Protein 1
Amino acid sequence: MSENIKSANKASEEIIQWGESHGFETCFDRAQRLKPCPIGATGACCKVCHMGPCRLVGKNAEEEARGVCGATLPTVAARNLLRMIAAGTAAHSDHARGMAFTLLSVANGEAKDFKITDVRKLYRVAGYLNVEFEGRPVNDVARDVATKLLEDFGRQKGEINYLTRAPKKTQERWKKWGLAPRGVDREVCEAMHRTNIGVDHDPDHILLHGLRTALADGWAGSMISTDVTDILFGTPMPVKAEASFGIFKEDEVNLVVHGHEPLLAEIMVDLTQDPEMVAYAQSKGAKGINLGGMCCTANEVLMRHGIPTAGGFTNQELGIMTGLVDAMTVDVQCIMPAIAELSKKFHTKVITTSEKAKMPGAIHIEFDEHRAKEVAKEIIKLAVDNFANRTAKGSHITEKFPVIAGFSQEYIEYMQGGRWRASFRPLNDAIIAGRVRGVVGLAGCDNPRVPSTGLHRFLATELIKNDVLIVSTGCGSAACGTAGYLTPEMALENAGPGLREVCEAIGIPPILHLGSCVDNSRILTIASAMAAEGGLSDEIGGMPAVGIAPEWMSEKAIAIGCYFAASGVPVIFGGDSPVEASEEVTRIMTKVWMERFMGALHFEPDPEKILAMALDYIDQARERLKLRKYEPGKFGAERVLMDMAARREIEKAAKPHLGIY
Ligand code: BF8
């Protein structure tokens, strides 16, 4: 990819260039101007006390460097990693706590604008928690479920509830190494204690607690968030939507929901179509109200309602620069403070809505689940009132792509066997036969330090070409969606013949959009279900499965990578390692964790090498499981496939509004 390209996405690149020619700065410009600190970037900077910061550099830093207190490079690097894990776990889990409290409020009749939408899922979760549900009022079950889930945050002794959802063997590994988390808050608190000056200095010991903390994220925080969101708003099933900047409408009020917590966004879904609100918009000269999403909030409402997405993390400033966004609400996580300043140069109103997060230059309208509709109406009216202030300024883009999203574990089971015989048998069999070589979770952020979304796109196309089924989440999904990759047609055009055959038979895309970042927990439960189905590994470890976060940037991604590694999945992150300075820490994360948990955390900047490592891990796992050796082109080659060019023409004629699709 060319040095000058800042985004691999054509529409994003167009806006970036338009912005540059008009003097608007974005994260892409700042990334070029601000080089990462070479000491901090490799994990060699210790700033946990005020005798430092100590920079552990030198010719033989690994052997000789010491901080003022005598802390070695491996100690410092391990502490830095643990603090990242703790921050990521805290973010996902605090989000989950809010969701569980909302469920409790709904059960108690205190959040009247919300209801329990998916009673089946409530009962399924009640079953995991040993909460009696037969013959009881739904709200009583919901109250007990919420109360039990909330115990996971403050529990001091014992184990978080959902560990028992993992295969027995995986649980045994956790027990053997003392990794079973007690409670989310306790593990995060202990992580901060251990990394405080003068406490835990053994890198292996520090990192074991890192894995325990990360497991509290994956199997409590994130999983609770996924489950409660499904209970309140419905378990996703495939839905068609659109992605990229062409989702914004010239003649309607464009309101963007950006961030992570789906509560306000869910209320907006109905309210923006409410006749009273639409009439209000029309009274101000707009044809209607167009709700769009950004980042993980987008994934939540895309999965459940087909609300279109403008893309992932690096698209947030670019969205404003289209000049078409009348208001953007932001709650928590992955919100660039730069958007408040940028919005002043356009007409966009940026509105902070969380009691936890304010931003100089933004309007603050606090969301409260007890009066959700009232708050949402206030925000919608503000967006509508701002429509008249729209000017011609902006880089208007029309490109958009169709997206199929909404692949929950429940739906994937259902699609493989129907309601009464739902299972993972067909997928396991396809892997055993070698039609599907393995599974990759393609997740994590998009990043302005590489041609953004480009690594996702490269890996997505190469992996499916190699008959690897992809499950995607977070901004990985946004990167694929805004490239037009989340459609069944992608299988026909780009997938290897074995994978293509499976996708055609079931009618699925080769890249399954599983949801937001907290929905990485769905991958954990899917892997557990595949282990339970039989024929592959009887634990999560040892499956022909790999996690990849090629453009990661957030501490949340590190927490996710570590809970996958601890659960038995080899994980490969793009970019340079944040603990590269310490060979010892690198050895622990790769070799030692692989021996103990069958998972690992690698960092590899070269996308070709990421691909090769992932395929190698998959093939090694197949060999260990004594599965048929994967042979490219063995399956499906004899079939006459649809002519995609002709199919496109038919589609285009039928749906001209779908742009270049
Ligand atoms: O939680 S993938 S940039 S938006 S951290 Fe953030 Fe990364 Fe996107 Fe969602 Ni996840």
Protein 2
Amino acid sequence: MPGVVIIGTQWGDEGKGKVVDLLAERAAMVVRFQGGNNAGHTIVRDDETFKFHLIPSGILHPGKICAIGNGVVVDPAVLTSEIDALRRRGVDVGGLKLSANAHLIMPYHVMLDTAGEAKLGKLEIGTTKRGIGPCYADKSARLGIRVQDLLDAKILRKKIAAALEPKQQLLRPFARDPKLDLHTMTEEYLRYGHRLEPHIADTAKLCWETLDSGRTVLFEGAQATLLDLDHGTYPFVTSSNPVAGAACVGAGVGPTDIDEVWGVCKAYTTRVGAGPFPSELTDEVGVHLRDRGHEFGTTTGRERRCGWLDLVALRYATRLNRLSALAITKLDVLSGLDPLRIAVRYRGTEGAVFEEFPYHQSILHTAAAEYEEMPGWEEDISGARSESELPPQARDYLAAISESAGVPIKLVGVGPGREQVVRMNGVELKAA
Ligand code: IMP
């Protein structure tokens, strides 16, 4: 039962796509289990850059099944345009499967997301305004429209009408928007249904068949642990569960189908949108990290907030996801910074020390990170391919992370290219 979950350990944008792309070589199937097109994965292959928002990163490997699981919320306009863009570049999308149970982002979800943020004013969450929260809210309220509904005009129309009804008040500012017209919307979504029909499948069953025949399934997380609706920095979170446990619900497998859980962690920390960030840097080091690391959102283009690596948060993510391995990304971005700092604990306003991630919002919002310093390195490490090619300071930095988390580091990213990776302790996946 070789099931491998890959999740982010921070606030997203850790470079999960690259890790999935590398591990996908040995997998038969890649499945996304939560989130929607709020995610953005960039993969650089032979000097070609691919950006995905919905399609699993494994799509660049011909012959693999790439599934969008039931836990994902799907904007069909985005999905069909990603399919078109890949086809234009000669990528075979025959392996793309879309769960019939996945929920659809509708035009009114996007409008409600925008309106909700505007209403919050200064207290805004800083969402990606892609309709994610309102879509998951409708799913919970049992007013959602699912992929399978696209295949039946009568049902689709009825369900859209029912979903629109309780929102009339909230949608009043958009009343004249033609996108909200019931007939137009139904026709538009039926067209998407027609286009997506060849991809619609029972993706849970595909996972079972793959796992039961001893082949590897990668469960690809989007966003990350600290953006988790239940375990993240609520309310500054996304509306799904990016933690590893959610892979079971969002793809339709059982906990004992999971053999390994890989956490992806950037060598420093970034966050997009509002919310607490104890190791945030507002000085020139933060600017250095942002510029060297090209820390601008793949989805919204927003500047990412940058800070030092936070071991308190990493230990929390390690336990919450019960990680079995770590992949550290963007280590090359730290070259030239000396000394390096790592957050090892937080201090509250009244002087209290927190060695563990505080559950209380008021503490987290005011806690300041306390650091240990480590020597940096000057060398360009982007050409390193083995542990021994890394400077001793870089190896010490990695050892400190691994020791604090209590988890082995298996991969280290040293540049954007897929070959720019140091494989530590062997990264062989079990079965292919
Ligand atoms: P939403 O997911 O669009 O509702 O946004 C909620 C919060 O999650 C905001 O702070 C977003 O910036 C953040 N967020 C959502 N998706 C991502 C992602 O893929 N990377 C980083 N932050 C994200």
